[in-house]
Write a structure and sequence with these properties.
By secondary structure, the chain is of the alpha+beta class. The chain has two domains: 231 residues, P-loop containing nucleotide triphosphate hydrolases (Rossmann fold, 3-Layer(aba) Sandwich), CATH 3.40.50.300; 106 residues, RNA polymerase II/Efflux pump adaptor protein, barrel-sandwich hybrid domain (OB fold (Dihydrolipoamide Acetyltransferase, E2P)). Helices cover 25% and strands 35% of the residues. The chain has nine helices and 20 strands. Strands 6-7-8-3-9-10 form a six-stranded mixed beta sheet, sandwiched between helices. Strands 13-12-11-14-20 form a five-stranded antiparallel beta sheet. A five-stranded antiparallel beta sheet has the order 15-19-16-17-18, with no helix packed on it. Strand 17 and strand 18 form a beta hairpin.
């Protein structure tokens, strides 16, 4: 069992609290992503699981073993983990083979067993033909595969990945996402993945933990996080969204300063914030819709038409079908049909942490 249990963990550096009361269980063989902006505390949590940092309060368990508490601290090399860093951290003076073999040599594994294990892992990470090369002779993606192979060769219970794809170009990042996910499935290990890239989190995770300012904002599957964000911060951080201020009246929401309204029969009264995903808006030329507006600009992106619509003083984004690019004209009056939207209580704050209906 490689379950990770985090019990009421807080981490402070002096007077600065970077994680507050983190309480969560990562299941055996689960792929969990810690997602949030820079400085939110996600890497600090990963480093505490790894044993590079000690919690200020609380406990961390790997399986049924306490690895961090006020009375116990197990060093990183004895936690049965593998870790891959953003910077690859491969040894420049060692070949690919020797880099991957290094953890086994340190553990004094017999040479014949090292050879079998390393050759097997090099096959898994598609580096068999590069075994005798040095890191300087490899691309960034190949170096990242070396780091991944080195982390996996000792058959860890848990694999920790700290923004491992952020230094790669977009196309390579996309292919590596699927490779890492496939390796995790084949090895059947627990993965904790840190990123600020919501696309990575959505594509790879069984569950996502969204963190802001050291506090968990929401825990859920990619579908739950995207379709039912717990607050405005999550809605804004995961995906694209338009926010409009409004006030609930009988059967509708009047949008502030726009002289327009949308139907609403939810529970909130008074001031609210409406959140609308750009892809949940359909443009209807000269038709009946929830809102009226004028097309300001449109950008043809091949698969979609990325539009900006003025709805009477507020500009919103609409992701329309690519075919609409030739059919619509800039400055054209247009109707907008809202397929779906979310409503939050307007607490008057700008940190986007109010509660959803």
């Amino acid at each position: 069992m490689s379950t990770i249990t985090i019990k009421n963990v807080t981490k402070a550096f002096g007077d600065v609290v970077v994680l507050k009361e983190f309480d969560e269980v990562f299941g055996d063989k689960e792929f969990v992503t810690l997602l949030g902006p820079s400085g939110c505390g996600k890497t600090t949590m990963l480093r505490m699981i790894a044993g590079f940092e000690k919690p200020t309060t609380g406990e961390i368990h790997i399986g049924d073993r306490v690895v961090s508490s006020d009375k116990t601290f197990v060093p990183p090399e004895k936690r049965g983990i593998g870790m891959v860093f953003q910077s690859y951290a491969v040894w420049p003076h060692m070949t690919v083979y020797d880099n991957v073999a290094y953890p086994l040599k340190i553990a004094k594994i017999p040479k014949a067993e090292i050879k079998n294990k390393v050759e097997s892992i090099l096959g898994v990470v598609h580096l068999s033909q590069y075994a005798s090369r040095y890191p300087s002779q490899l691309s960034g993606g190949q170096q990242q595969r070396v780091a991944l192979g080195r982390a996996l060769v000792a058959e860890p219970k848990v694999l920790l990945l700290d923004e491992p794809l952020s230094n790669l170009d977009a196309k390579l990042r996309e292919s590596m996402r699927f490779e890492i996910k496939e390796i995790q499935k084949n090895f059947g290990i627990t993965v904790v993945y840190v990123t600020h890239d919501q696309t990575e989190a959505m594509a790879m995770s069984d569950r996502i933990i969204v963190i802001n300012r050291g506090v968990i904002q929401q825990v859920g599957t990619p579908t739950e996080i995207y379709q039912k964000p717990a607050n405005q911060f999550v809605a804004d951080f995961v995906g694209k969204v338009n926010f409009l201020k409004g006030e609930v009246k009988e059967g509708h929401i009047e949008l502030v300063g726009l002289d327009q309204s949308i139907p609403y029969d939810g529970v909130y009264k008074g001031k609210v914030v409406v959140a609308i995903r750009p892809e949940n808006i359909t443009l209807i030329p000269n038709g009946q819709g929830s809102l009226k507006g004028k097309l300001l600009t449109q950008f043809y992106l091949g698969d979609v038409n990325d539009c900006r619509i003025d709805i009477g003083g507020e500009v919103i984004r609409v992701i329309a079908e690519s075919e609409s690019y030739g059919a619509l004209q800039e400055n054209q009056e247009i109707s907008l049909y809202l397929k779906d939207f979310l409503v939050y209580e307007d607490d008057g704050k700008d940190d986007h942490t109010s509660i959803i209906t």
